[in-house]
Amino acid sequence: MMDIAGYMVEVGEQARAAAAVVARSTTAMRNQALLATAEAIDAARGELAMANTKDLDAGRENGLEPAMLDRLELTPARIDTMIEGLRQVAALPDPIGEITDMTYRPSGIQVGKMRVPLGVIGIIYESRPNVTVEAASLCLKSGNATILRGGSEAIHSNQAVAACIARGLAAAGLPEAAVQVVKTTDRAAVGELITMPRYVDVIVPRGGKGLIERISRDARVPVIKHLDGICHVYIDSHADPEKALAIAVNAKTHRYGTCNTMETLLVDQEIAEDILPLLAEAFVAKGVELRGCEATRAILPDVIAATEEDWGEEYLAPILAVRVVDGLDGAITHINRYSSQHTDSIVTENYTRARRFITEVDSSSVMVNASTRFADGFEYGLGAEIGISTDKIHARGPVGLEGLTSQKYVVFGDGHIRN
Amino acid sequence: MMDIAGYMVEVGEQARAAAAVVARSTTAMRNQALLATAEAIDAARGELAMANTKDLDAGRENGLEPAMLDRLELTPARIDTMIEGLRQVAALPDPIGEITDMTYRPSGIQVGKMRVPLGVIGIIYESRPNVTVEAASLCLKSGNATILRGGSEAIHSNQAVAACIARGLAAAGLPEAAVQVVKTTDRAAVGELITMPRYVDVIVPRGGKGLIERISRDARVPVIKHLDGICHVYIDSHADPEKALAIAVNAKTHRYGTCNTMETLLVDQEIAEDILPLLAEAFVAKGVELRGCEATRAILPDVIAATEEDWGEEYLAPILAVRVVDGLDGAITHINRYSSQHTDSIVTENYTRARRFITEVDSSSVMVNASTRFADGFEYGLGAEIGISTDKIHARGPVGLEGLTSQKYVVFGDGHIRN
């Protein structure tokens, strides 16, 4: 039997040593490693397909669900996307070493902040092997070493991808331990990884809510996490009805399975009678099932009754909870109680209400007259996204390269001493 | 017997509710509360002295050490400092609501970041009752609610201070639960406080290393912490000897008990023979005991031999470890191994070595030709300091008001939907 704890300490030590080398590597070296990895993946399509077939066969034997098998599959199109992603990350500006806020202090010292890598980042994810490349590339670009622990059902695919990354790192003269994929499928490895603050600076779990809750509960290392996406659109009585319809329909139906999809629609009672029938018509045309509060059902008798559970539900499906609220106060009260603090939007032409909504709704993205679907690292211009944080500490909302960095103070003097 | 868990949940619920009110309070209201607290403290000098006498008497009975009794004492001068501190915090700019980085995206939406409070901050500290006011004022200014848990030996003093804060909050129309001092001295209250992520967003422990390690180990809530201050000054062969002497002496002898005091001096072997005798003379004149490596003792035979333990020791005393190193590489290797990643400084006139030191030393403050004693929120212009973080996540180095805040994304559209 393998000594998992001993193995993980070894992985951790190697990662820590590699992190120091990556931290002081040049922008050019890190970009070269990313581009060389892209080439290595392109050259290893056969190898990747074989490894992936092993995982798929084993998955079928073990009775994996079709949705899981689909996520596991490395199609040629997905490999293209991985390659394209690496090239995009290489093209992003290097966040590391940026010095900002440099000012002279009355003492004569000059003080500023320099952006630096976090160190070693642990990524824990489920079946998608393409996450291996996505996560590793963002961590490497931001000057960090990475320890990746993918789902056991993707072990062969992940190892094959890891081999390509190792070739890319070697081509750039960077240590292969800068990106390590844990070689064991033993679950104990996860337990070790999240309790090694000496070797791991932060954990980013990516996957279902169960995984993320378990990791957050047991971790002894800071976790950047995303839990639910229970997002709201509130249609105010001063909304432009055309904008309201367009935003509500887009926020719900643009994609059903994403975390920034609207799950509950709130409508100001003053305009409920006018706008609810139009909304219902649009949603029914799109095949969306509505679940309404009593006031909603008074206007739309065909709508199913919503229960208390509906307000806290992340459907990720063509289902929408609808509630009539008593103006802006009712909307804010509902949102601050049921929202997962992910993304909430108001539709209104009223300046004061927009200002109040922006200030009083405590969510990672607050919007005026825009679809919740915009809450996304690419749409926000971060260039990339490792995830969307529903935490408040360190990183909130879409997390790009900057979320994988820290800042240290730099002080320049000329023999200055403190009096 | 008191139901500690139940009591702490009540405290947490009240803090959470108060945090929402404080978060949307105006700058003027929060400043008014701070100034009214200053007045209340000034008016309650008799009350404070009586409560403090109770604690001091009990402390003497329980055989508290003189140093502890000194920290516990609320002298008139310390009360003046508390009042002055409140006025200074009131005069600081309000960090909350600041919107930055507002840009238009190709989709047409306008995206920026708004600075927001963290929510509820738990402060755990030891004997000094003045921390109650210091910490509460910074948390309130930054729009947060606070739960304070001071040392049991200061319970009467802390409750008296809390009563003044409550008067200040009431005068400004803010809820008294915005600042709560835990009313029980039962240690179980700390255990509850650090494991209530539902009610507490971050814990800031202030005190000895033992307390901070214990809290970090057991917390289920993010912790902003400060462990050791093992700070280095490296005197490079290209140093200006005059600057080197001034900085080394200041870094060690300006104050012995502070975390940014130099604990180990590193000297480039190329200049060791020239500069070590001058340094030794200066330190001996100040009464500092030197503990040197073999090479140091070859030059300064009177110096005590340093052991491996000395390199990792935070003396907080007139003792200094001295090591001769093999140039910049030797210095960086030593620092990255033994430094507590707090503050490290190089003395050099060499541009390339200064640049390398700044980049390759992974500490929260890195300095060129300046005394480590400058690593301080006031010296850096933060206006205030809740502590110095030796973590990398969220806040690194001196933590001012900004470290007690987060940022949320704000998105302005005009009916924008995602395609």
TrEMBL record, chains A, B:
It is an enzyme of class 1 (oxidoreductase). It catalyses: L-glutamate 5-semialdehyde + phosphate + NADP(+) = L-glutamyl 5-phosphate + NADPH + H(+). Keywords: Amino-acid biosynthesis, Cytoplasm, NADP, Oxidoreductase, Proline biosynthesis. GO terms for biological process: L-proline biosynthetic process. Pathway: Amino-acid biosynthesis; L-proline biosynthesis; L-glutamate 5-semialdehyde from L-glutamate: step 2/2. GO terms for molecular function: glutamate-5-semialdehyde dehydrogenase activity; NADP binding. It is found in: Cytoplasm. Belongs to the gamma-glutamyl phosphate reductase family. Catalyzes the NADPH-dependent reduction of L-glutamate 5-phosphate into L-glutamate 5-semialdehyde and phosphate. The product spontaneously undergoes cyclization to form 1-pyrroline-5-carboxylate. This is Gamma-glutamyl phosphate reductase. It comes from Marinobacter mobilis.
